[in-house]
Description:
By secondary structure, the protein is mainly beta. About 10% of the residues lie in helices and about 35% in strands. It folds into 3 domains: about 30-130, Phosphorylase Kinase, domain 1; about 130-305, Transferase(Phosphotransferase) domain 1 (Transferase(Phosphotransferase), domain 1), CATH 1.10.510.10; about 395-595 and about 605-685, YVTN repeat-like/Quinoprotein amine dehydrogenase (Methylamine Dehydrogenase, Chain H), CATH 2.130.10.10. β31 and β32 form a beta hairpin. The termini are far apart. GO terms for molecular function: ATP binding; protein serine/threonine kinase activity.
Amino acid sequence: MNPRINSHSQNPEDPDKKIVIKNETIGGISNCPPILKERYQVIKPLGESVWSHTFLAIDQDKPSKPPCIIKEFVSLDDRKDLVFQGQEVIPTFSCNPVQLDKIGKHPQIPELLASVEHDGHRYLVQEYIEGRDLATELIEDGVFSEHKIWQILNQLLPVLEFIHDHHLIHGDIKPENIICRTKPGTNTQEFVLVDFGVTISATGDLLSIGSINGSAEYAAPEQTKGKVYPNSDIYSLGVTCLYLLTMVSPFELFDIKADKWAWRDYLKHPISRHLGRILDKMVQRDHRQRYQSVAEVIKDIKYGPTPVDVILQKPRWTVTAWGAAAIALLSLVISSRLPSPQTQPLSSSTNIPKLEPRSPQLKVDDFDSSISTLPPISPSTGIIDRLSPLQTLATTSGPVWSIAASPNGRIIASGSTNGNIQLLHLRSGKKLGKLSGHDGPVWSVAVSPDGRTLVSSSSDSTIKIWNIYSGTLKNTLYGHLKDVFSVAISPDGNTIASVSKDKTIKLWDLNSGLLLYTLYGHLDEVQSVAFSTDGQTLASGSNDGTVKLWDWRYGRLLRTLRGHDGPVWSVAISPDGKTLASGSWDNTIKLWDLDSNRPRRVVRRSQRTLMGHSEKVQSLEFSPDGKTLASGDFGGTIKLWKIDTGGLVGTLKGHSAWVNLTFDPRGKTLISGSFDDTIKVWRFSPYRF
């Protein structure tokens, strides 16, 4: 349906009166009677296109008077004035209603109720689907998460396959034609494909040059030339996903001068390499380079790319002359390709999470003692030039959103897109278990100072508190209205700080789960949060480009720091409490001098700005001794900085996508988790920076 709606009064009592809809684009009118077939009473118009008019109606013959949809198709005589590329445009309705009746039996396609001829015009009466179309949902709720895109693909690709198996092509897939509703008899969401007004019979023959179908923004290039293929629907679905991820018109997402898609530049949140690669192939402009069938897309989602697509490249190092002596890569990679996305939406019901394998207590020291890390590398070994490709260990974690290490440095916790938290042994890389319970990507994980409790936050708007050793869920905290992007635990282990897309900061009692305070002040989504080491000050970074310092115990704002030219996605406070670091989408890191000698902690000035990243900075971590700052960006690059001088120690280039960082609290290891589906462990030598 066209989003442009023309409302006007109806007169059902006059059956001879025509409904007139003026269309400034095509200058046409509707000939639909107020009551069609003496049964379907028109209530109001819903939209129009070059080819049809759409009305909301009610079925007068049924006792419940259920709503339905009437679609009126234009006649050839009504559109003889339209031309395309010098040729007459022929409005087509080449799909046999019998075929539409057959596919209407699918639960995610509206049922065809009637096909009517009236005064030389054809009308279809179809089931009314109650719910929000995705265009409306995008406006009301904001850009879609990767998890939601996977749901759309998992549900609608089989629907498209069903349509194509019946030798039909939808021809007009776009956000307005996808309805999200509650699946009958359940509490789960279901996506329904509607508006089959331009559905085309896929007989193997191309449409004539005069036949143009679909909406220009989402139509495949060949459709604008009067041709259509089954994979034209794949293109339109892919472009729909790009729009839902960016909220930017598809016309703007394609760089005409460079003749390529530039949709990644408009992402508000990064997505996994696996999803990106699938979308790239779905929206290939040349239909021959596109997926040739829906089955190919489904297979790629389920099994991942072919072996040639996953050849790992040797990690590249760019290190300053004196920094080369200080850094060495521990050849340990923990993760593999993204697993099959779940074919049904994640259940909203609460299940008791289980840690697999289950044991009374995880014995993290019982692994083979012969498994050891690479030794620190001295300047004279030359081993940096002889590093072999990284080893990849099979796992089911997929892209990594968040990562944390236990205080003793033995356990790594990583949060993934599929809603799971994986626990791994740092030294051996062996899987210890999996925590399942979130209904969306796990944006953040944090481990308590005593190493017994893990706190996680998710796109499902909840915070969960877990017992690491038993794998049991201790509590679920509700209060945020939207995604919870980051959580932090106070140094005494008693308080949780959380920040959210709802622009608020909340403080919780870790033991009881009670909400202590809600802090307001940021004007946009709050992305990151950190406690000072004395536990008195809280720092928060936001999409509004500011960093705020809080005396959280009294709910007071101490200071607002301005200086970044973009969203602030990461904040960190040094172990000695003297330096605050903030990382931004302006590709810079700022170091702020905190004055800890006054009763109220204030900031004297921006100490310095660190420049060197070519991508948005979204992860920062101080080394345990406070002398080094590690930063990660959207491109997967990690940089190490000396805090006292601001000098660049070195650049680690082993990842190919978004990266999150954490230090082993013992100070010997930097751990990075990435959207390239890997976790890498970087070993530092005893040489001081």
